Amino acid sequence: MSSNARFIGPVLSILLFLAAGTAWGQEEARLSAGDTAWVLTSTALVLMMTLPGLALFYGGLVRAKNVLSILMQCLISAGLVGVLWVLFGYSLAFADGNSIVGGFGKVGLEGIGPETLSGTIPELVFIMFQGMFAIITPALMLGAFAERMRFGPYLAFIGTWVIVVYCPLAHQVWGGGWLSDLGAIDFAGGLVVHMSSGFSALAAAIFLGKRRGFGREPMPPHSVPLTVIGASLLWVGWFGFNAGSELAADGVAALAFLNTSTAASMATLSWVFIEWSHRGKPTVLGAATGAVAGLVAITPACANVSPLGSIAVGLGAAAICYLAVTLLKPALGYDDSLDVFGVHGIGGAWGALATGIFIMNGELPDGVSRLDQIGTQATSIVYVAILAPVLTLAILFALKLVFGPLTVSAEAEHMGLDLAEHSESAYVV
């Protein structure tokens, strides 16, 4: 064999390897129509969670004279946060920055066009999907101080909160910040969405004070059917919230999809039997609340636990959130109007911790034990539980200096926010 012939085989092998590597790299960077279609669908489902899901869920829980104010606050969250997300929010959450917050490289979506990809989907689709999360998170908070906050200060509050609290936290968990580097797992928003809104809501409810007559006058929901319809829409929309967070139409999305409904089913069933045992009769309102608690708790864990693990997450959510709503809230005496802290704050914290407890062995990072992961999850929980309410109180204190009273007058509260703030009535006789 000649010397030239001896080198032909190795050279051809190297060239074929490089060619295959180049083709693989091109394949990885190629847009996937299937992934894009799924995330587009998921984006619409997540928007449906706010409008009309959350609007109806909260709207049915308040008194009839305040239902339009709830609908308006959900609508305006979509309007205001939708604009802020394009102008500044996305950049602060996902542009290159430091370990705390993103930079200004994508302000106004600078440099992003239809051809710009984020993985296998257009970055514009990713922006829109994440924008739906930014819209629903401050809207979740309004349930804690429903029936008493002025509309102007509410606008200023949620706009400031999204920029100061939500965007940095989203960057820290999903945008390459320090919680991501720490190894915290939050697949779809147990920390970023539910804990941040739930603990901020508690701080806001305490800062703004109780509704007049709270604890002395009955304040029952004016329409449980509206609330159940809203909860049902939330359940459907949550498939986009959780399974869509995979950003691909694949097996992980399928697991998240299955776990989402399984945890909600278990929490609904568990809440009903807990309430039945505790109070003598099961209620439709309890079943709806249990479903939402289960959905909240599985959010951070949906892609990392098995279906059996999701059953455990749902069972724990029902028990812990039920205790928070029925025992902790009356014992401490705070007026969290629609139990945002008890369901989203506590449920989100349980879900984040349960992610470490029930994570499948194959999902643990290399060299990380289950106990290590539980410790990491606990660290992230404590961090969010402190950061979100502290920043929320700072925002509210500053707004009070600017606006004066943040709550409506006694006369306006008695009249109802629908008439006092919007000159409208939901039910005209």
What does this structure look like?
Helix 2 packs parallel to helix 4, helix 3 crosses helix 4 and helix 10 crosses helix 12. The protein is mainly alpha-helical and 429 residues long. The chain has a two-stranded antiparallel sheet with strand order 1-2. It has 15 helices and 2 strands. It is globular, with a radius of gyration of 23 Å. It has a single domain, classed as Ammonium transporter AmtB like domains (Ammonium transporter fold, Orthogonal Bundle), CATH 1.10.3430.
Write the layout of secondary structure elements.
Layout: H1 3-28, H2 33-61, H3 67-94, E1 117-118, E2 121-122, H4 123-141, H5 151-174, H6 178-182, H7 190-208, H8 224-243, H9 251-279, H10 284-298, H11 307-332, H12 340-358, H13 370-403, H14 410-415, H15 417-422
Antiparallel strand pairs: 1-2
Instruction: Output the CATH class name.
Output: Mainly Alpha
What is the ordering of alpha helices and beta strands? HHHEEHHHHHHHHHHHH
- The proportion of strand residues reads under 5%
**Into which percent range does the helicity of residues fall?**
over 70%
Label the CATH architecture. Answer: Orthogonal Bundle
The CATH fourth-level homologous superfamily: Ammonium transporter AmtB like domains
* Total helical segments: 15
Compose a concise summary of this entry.
The protein is mainly alpha-helical and 429 residues long.
